[in-house]
Structure formats: structure tokens, C-alpha cells
Amino acid sequence: MSTRAGxxxxxxxxxAGKSTLTNRMVGAKVSIVTxxxxxxxxxxxxxxxxxxxxxxxxxxxxxxxxxxxxxxxMVAAAWGGAxxxxxxxxxxxxxxxxxxxxxxxxxGLEEIGxxxxxxxxxxxxxxxxxxxxxxxxxxxxxxxSFERTFMISAEKGxxxxxxxxxxxxxxxxxxxxxxxxxxxDLPMRMIAAEMTREKLTLRLHQELPYQLTVETEAWExxxxxxxxxxxxxxxxxDGHKGIVLGKKGETIKAVSKxxxxxxxxxxxxxxxxxxxxxxxPNWLEESERYSEMGLDFKDGNA
Length: 302
Known about the structure:
Elements: E1 4-12, H1 18-26, E2 44-50, E3 53-59, H2 69-83, E4 87-93, H3 100-112, E5 117-123, H4 130-143, E6 149-151, H5 160-170, H6 188-203, E7 212-221, E8 227-235, H7 238-245, H8 250-267, E9 271-279, H9 287-292
Parallel strand pairs: 1-3, 1-4, 4-5, 5-6, 8-9
Antiparallel strand pairs: 2-3, 7-8
Membrane topology: Peripheral membrane protein
Region (G2): 38-42
Domain Era-type G: 4-173
């Protein structure tokens, strides 16, 4: 039996379930999942195996109308991920239907989708009745000629296996792109930073969801098999620093504990995590911050 391998780009609006689906397909947590929109910043790739096929998922940032440099860089990364893929899967939320955002993506697909295979995955199917699903599927297929349509629940797993099997069979024949035991091609430092950022986002979802970023500054392997990880949390104002630290340092302690536990589970060994908070008013305009997130600073230009 010959092997197959290729890239699959998941595109859709923020919160469409792309990260959740990536994690389900890969069978491990490689992409951060929060209830806040626009949490995925870089094109995180998860590597999934199905039979003799290796499926490399490009989990793109959600496509939305960009207003500032970081937004523009994220949207450019999303379309770039789609343009580089062998197969594109558009994810649409069943209960939200064809929103203005979905309309915009359908327009973009007219150009990006040319010469590419594009499938449709209607997600969160447990939230609507079957007749609504069928009508939505019919309408979307009128707007764009999708190769296949899948009804799924990324969270509960319904329909995900059918989608995975179809992707595995449709990828081009060729050798695998990554070693068998590798599940993501992001550096471990970046995955660790994403884990901490997710915990901060969950904890501070009201106060400052997008006003901060996390970078892993140092990673030291210790003789006892554990790792020391030093991370810096950049915020834009002094007031934000106080919010991240919390009363008597409670917030940062809780975030550090949650991030450390998840990192230990991911690595299968002990981790000593040290977090610091630094005020950098202009971090959104600093090219190094974008490089750390795997984004192109130039893509943020108006």
C-alpha cells in the first residue's frame, strides 16, 4: 500500500471550531481552544495519521474584517495557509448559518479555491434541527461547488471520522512529511507560550483578551529530566500588569499552575515554569513580537 501525505487548511470565521477539530483529528492538544474569538494567531500545524496517510492540518486564524496591524497579519496568514494547502475545508457554524463573515470567505474562495479541492464542514450540528442543516447545506453548495459536504460536531466527534477518512484518501501519494511520532511542527517554545496565553485568555477574558502576548525566553533541560521554562508576558499598560498579577499575585499563580500542569502532561515530565510580566506599550507594532507568533510583520501593513 502506498503512502499519502499533504496539507489540509481549515478556514472559517473566528470560533468556527477549527482548533477543536485540529485537536480531535490529531488526538492531542496542539492548538489553543478558548471561548474568545481570534485566539489562534499563527498557522499551527497538527499532524494526524489515518491508515497509510499523514494529514498535516494547517489551523489558520479565523477570517474576519481586520482593523489593526495584528488583525491584518492574522488574516494574511489564514489566506496564506489556504493557498499553500492541498485541500481546503471551510468550517461553518450550523446555528449561525451564512453570516457576513461567511459571505466574505465565499468571495475569497472564488480566487483561492481555483485549482484546489475544497470541502465544506458544517460544525456544531447538535445545535440545530436536521431540516435547518439540510437547507444550509443546500444554500452553501449553491454559492460554491464544494467537492464534499460533511456534517460534524468537532467537540463531540460526530462526523469527524468520516471527514478524516475522506481527507486521508484524497491526499496526494508520496512519502510522509514528518516523523511518525511528531504531532506538531511548531517549536516547543511556541507551543508552551500558547498554552500560557490560553490560560491567561480564559482567566482574563473580560479584561484584556488581545492586549497581551507571551514569549518563551529560556528553556533549560535539567539533569534530572525536568525542564526549566522562563516566559515573559507582555502587556500594553501598567494597569494591565496589575490585572495579570491579580490581588497578592493570585491570578499569575493560578495561570502558572494551570499552564505548568498542561505542559507537564504534554511533555510527560516535570516542568518548572517561571512567569514575569513586562509593560511594552507598543508591542503590537514590534516586528520581533510577530516573528515569535509565526506571523509576518509586513502582512500587517494597511
